[in-house]
Design brief:
Layout: H1 25-34, E1 35-45, E2 55-65, E3 72-75, E4 79-85, E5 88-89, E6 99-102, E7 108-117, E8 126-130, E9 137-141, E10 163-171, E11 175-178, E12 182-185, H2 193-198, E13 202-207, E14 220-223, E15 226-232, E16 235-241, H3 246-270, E17 279-285, E18 291-292, E19 297-301, H4 312-327, E20 335-337, H5 343-361, H6 367-373, H7 375-383, H8 398-403, H9 407-424, H10 426-440, E21 443-445, H11 447-458, H12 463-470, E22 477-481, E23 484-488, E24 499-508, E25 511-521, E26 526-528, E27 537-542, E28 549-551, H13 554-563, H14 570-585, H15 591-602, H16 608-625, H17 631-647, H18 653-666, H19 670-682, H20 687-699, H21 705-714, H22 720-729, H23 734-746, H24 754-763, H25 769-782, H26 791-800, H27 808-819, H28 825-845
Parallel strand pairs: 1-10, 16-17, 17-19, 20-21, 22-28
Antiparallel strand pairs: 1-2, 2-7, 3-6, 4-5, 4-7, 8-9, 10-13, 11-14, 12-13, 15-16, 18-19, 22-23, 23-26, 24-25, 24-27
Helix pairs in contact: 3-4, 3-5, 4-5, 5-9, 6-14, 6-16, 7-9, 9-10, 10-11, 13-15, 14-15, 15-16, 16-17, 16-18, 17-18, 18-20, 19-20, 20-22, 22-23, 22-24, 25-27, 26-28, 27-28
GO molecular function, one term: metalloaminopeptidase activity
Protein name: Aminopeptidase N
EC number: 3.4.11.2
């Protein structure tokens, strides 16, 4: 899953007696020792979802019991209508807290449960969506971590893998998608007397058996989708979207198919294990806050089909999502964690593998440098604050697993896996992975078994590395003092071992020229580097090979701040910027020093993929981290730079697009708006810049409703109303904020994921500090109503809608809420991350 939180508290989360119970690790272990699940044969009835809310299912589970006569339970959330165990009727009234008791098990058992679910509107495992542009209905499922129990009866834990076979009845005009290919689709028919009387026609879709899969990676999606299908590289590749988004999917088809074909080839070769079936589908669905690695049928937010012309960073983000979910076909689906304490390994590995693959497929993408300039910085942010936790954590129950879908799990984990590959060497790293997949295919495995495979392939003892990097929280700091590296750990313990480079650079007419590169493996707190050449800049962690905070020597710092843009390597430039941003967050540099550093890099940046993230960093420093009195001056400076980048004769289309969008966020003068209006007029079909320009005008209290209505009239995006809502939300008035708030929190008018991020950016304009502080407190009020919503929906609201400005009272209140014993783990993490960030922002502004 992508879509990147918390250090779990001790013990399970308390839930009301009538709420679905959260499966504990002890319960899962006991059930896995007792049962072996052979197969699920599941019938799903979607007919009532055409005009209603009810999902119906019959689950037939075939399983064996190692201790005949024992008792257990099956998971099922919803209404149980009937159930039999080995032909004997069970008491459905005994179903409570999402569990149905099973007593007196035989050696071989067949359980049949008929159930239904009406919670199909909250995004909790099942979501029914009506496309407002054409009233077509779409249904999708996403079951991680324990959502399958909301759709049908199952043993919902990752180490009880089984074959799944689905048979689904749905309205005749719908397509139905699942993990495997359909082997039979009936002709339209009236299924029962009620349908016959109403004149409703349906089809039965039957799907072939899946391999042995965990319950959380199976899927049923349905609706009147538009389909694109091509045979490539020995696979049948499918792309699906709702009908109203057909033009955007067709625009992106060639790129999506190219990446899918190349990714399947890359992973199949690297892992010595081709993808296990011919069919591989991507399904773009509405109102989803991320993506999900269902075997052979990946679902992801259709906001990835950008309604304006996507920027280079948009395309790289989509490629990363595609490859992340694809990597899960091996790490997660083929070989699955036994329990959620190894969730980090699933997600960190998929994130690592996505960048690894993109770097190989598109070498000019500078994929690792872009990661360092974007996602890795988010990992550093959480790891420096109170929401940090070890990469590997105890997970007493599934509710706490939900908390660990965070930046530590995904992004720090990704960086750490990359440095493990650098430590072992790619050839030995790959050999370890191949051995791991060969030994555990279609089963479950633990971290210890993976590390054992790496140790055998490399000949290195890795227990110490594992304990140092995975079992301790926080980021070490490496400081260069003379020719000595000093390493300090935030917990006061023995520093971790770091394998890194120190790049030595001398000033010259051509910029900063390399005079040496010194590889060092640190040991303890002090490591001597007597062979370090003399240089004007000693760039610690050149190449970004270790996850570490860097503190240069004083002379190097001055060169870094003024001349980082003249470094010859893209990753080196990003390391310089990351160092400055880290020192800003720690109160060791002023916002002015950091702003000038980022601007200086942008003035020389030659890698198109880095321009957009660096512009975003400069914008954040200018409008959020800077003292209020300096914000207009810095925004004007950034707008001028963005305009120059857009106009430069050497700037390609990708750089121009990123520069113009930054100009729209930073515009302050009539000249800026004239430049934007001219760009909008020159590209009337690309509505993104037009919406951003109207948003900026509204934020400056120059709202133009007539222009908004005109743009709504010509924007083909079926959800253009959400962009219009964002324009209204940007206005600096209490009434505008109140109306927008109601639309987001009450009416559910803003889809999860990217639309929520865009809306939040419109609403929380940092310059509107005094107006927004009460709304920051309202945000805390809303969090109590999130219990019961799905993982992706909760994550989207609490992380993406978090305030970007506040007062000291908010910080105190947010921390108190985070520490409350009844706080949802994922909410706790989001509050700790947001409060830490904003405390640092307030300090920097002062």
């Amino acid at each position: 899953m992508s879509g990147p939180e918390d250090s779990p508290a001790d013990g399970p989360v308390d839930v009301p007696a009538d709420a679905p119970a959260s499966l504990t690790q002890d319960e899962a272990r006991a059930r896995a020792e007792l049962l072996d699940v052979e197969r699920y044969d599941i019938e799903v009835d979607l007919r009532e979802l055409l005009a209603g809310e009810r999902w119906r299912a019959t689950s037939r589970v075939t399983f064996t019991c190692r201790r005949p006569g024992a008792d257990t339970f099956v998971d099922v959330v919803g209404e149980v209508h009937a159930a039999t165990l080995n032909g004997v009727e069970l008491d459905a009234s005994a179903h409570r807290a999402g569990r149905l008791a099973l007593t007196g098990l035989a050696e071989r058992n067949e359980l049949v449960v008929v159930s239904s679910q009406t919670d199909t509107g909250s995004g909790n495992a099942i979501l029914r969506t009506v496309d407002g542009s054409d009233d077509r209905v779409y249904v999708w499922t996403s079951f991680e971590p324990d959502g399958a129990r909301r759709a049908w009866a199952c043993f919902d834990q990752p180490d009880l893998k089984a074959v799944h076979r689905f048979r689904v009845v749905a309205p005749a005009e719908w397509s139905v998608l699942s993990n495997s290919a359909p082997d039979q689709v009936s002709e339209p028919t009236a299924v029962d007397d009620a349908d016959h009387e109403a004149g409703l026609l349906s089809r039965w879709w039957s799907f072939t058996d899946t391999p042995r899969l965990s319950t959380y990676v199976v899927v049923v999606n349905a609706g009147p989708f538009h389909e694109v299908r091509e045979q490539r590289g020995g696979h049948s590749l499918g792309l699906w979207c709702r009908q109203s988004l057909r033009p955007y999917l067709e625009r992106d088809t060639a790129e999506l198919l190219r990446l899918t074909e190349a990714g399947l080839a890359f992973f199949g070769e690297r892992f010595d294990q081709p993808f296990g079936q011919e069919r591989y589908d991507h399904v773009f669905v509405p109102d989803m806050g991320g993506a999900m690695e269902n075997w052979g049928c990946v679902t992801w937010s259709d906001s990835a089909l950008h309604r304006g012309e996507p920027t280079l960073l948009d395309r790289m983000t989509a490629a990363d999502t595609l490859l992340h979910e694809m990597a899960h076909m091996w790490f997660g689906d083929l070989v699955t964690m036994r329990w959620w304490d190894d969730l980090w390994l699933n997600e960190a590995f998929a994130s690592f593998a996505a960048t690894w693959a993109l770097d190989a497929i598109d070498p000019g993408s500078a994929a690792w440098a872009v990661f360092a300039a974007t996602d890795e910085l988010v990992g550093y942010e959480q790891d420096r604050g109170p929401a940090r936790h070890p990469i590997r954590t105890e997970v007493p129950d599934v509710a706490h697993a939900m908390a660990n879908f965070d930046a530590i799990t995904y992004l720090k984990g990704q960086a750490v896996l990359r440095q493990l590959m650098e430590l072992l060497g790619e050839e030995r790293f790959v050999a370890g992975l191949r051995a791991h997949f060969a030994e555990h295919a279609w089963g479950n495995a633990t971290l210890a078994e993976l590390m054992s495979a790496f140790a055998a392939a490399s000949g290195r003892e890795l227990d110490g590395w594992t304990a140092a990097w995975l079992d301790r929280a926080g980021t070490d700091t490496v400081s260069l003092v003379g020719d000595t590296l000093l390493v300090a750990s935030p917990d006061g313990g023995t520093p971790r071992p770091h394998a890194l480079l120190v790049g030595s650079y001398a000033r010259s007419d051509a910029g900063l020229s390399p005079v040496g590169s010194t590889r060092v493996e640190t040991a303890g707190a002090v490591t001597s580097m007597s062979d370090l050449p003399e240089a004007d800049l000693q760039l610690v962690n050149d190449g970004d090979l270790s996850f570490v905070s860097v503190r240069p020597d004083e002379a190097s710092l001055q060169v870094l701040l003024t001349d980082a843009g003249r470094l010859p390597d893209a990753t080196g430039r990003v390391v310089a910027v990351s160092t400055a941003l880290d020192m800003l967050a720690e109160g060791e540099l002023s916002s002015g020093d950091v702003f000038e550093c980022v601007v200086a890099v942008l003035e020389h940046e030659t890698v198109p993929g880095l321009v957009e993230p660096l512009l975003a960093r400069a914008l954040a420093v200018a409008e959020q981290w800077s003292p209020t009195v300096l914000v207009p001056r810095r925004l004007e400076r950034l707008a001028r730079l963005a305009g120059d980048l857009a106009d430069h004769e050497d700037s390609g289309a990708d750089v121009r697009a990123a520069a113009l969008q930054t100009l729209a966020w930073a515009a302050t003068t009539s000249e800026h708006f004239d430049r934007l209006d001219a760009a909008v007029a020159a590209a009337p079909d690309d509505t993104e810049l037009a919406w951003l320009t109207l948003t900026r005008r509204a934020a400056l209290d120059r709202h133009d409703q007539e222009a908004v209505d005109a743009l709504l009239g010509r924007d083909p995006d079926p959800e253009a109303r959400v962009r219009a809502l964002g324009v209204a939300a940007a206005r600096p008035s209490e009434e505008a904020k109140a109306e927008a708030w109601e639309q987001f929190w009450r009416a559910g008018a803003v889809p999860s994921g990217v639309p929520t991020r865009t809306f939040a950016r419109c609403f929380w304009r940092p310059a509107q500090h005094d107006l927004l502080v009460p709304w920051a407190h309202r945000f805390l009020d809303e969090l109590s109503d999130l219990n019961g919503e799905g993982l992706l929906a909760v994550g989207s609201k609490v992380r993406l809608m978090a305030p970007t400005t506040c007062d000291v009272a908010w910080l105190d209140r947010a921390r108190d809420l985070a520490e409350a014993p009844d706080a949802l783990p994922a909410v706790r993490t989001a509050l700790l991350v947001a409060s830490d960030r904003l405390a640092r922002v307030l300090a920097a502004r002062a």
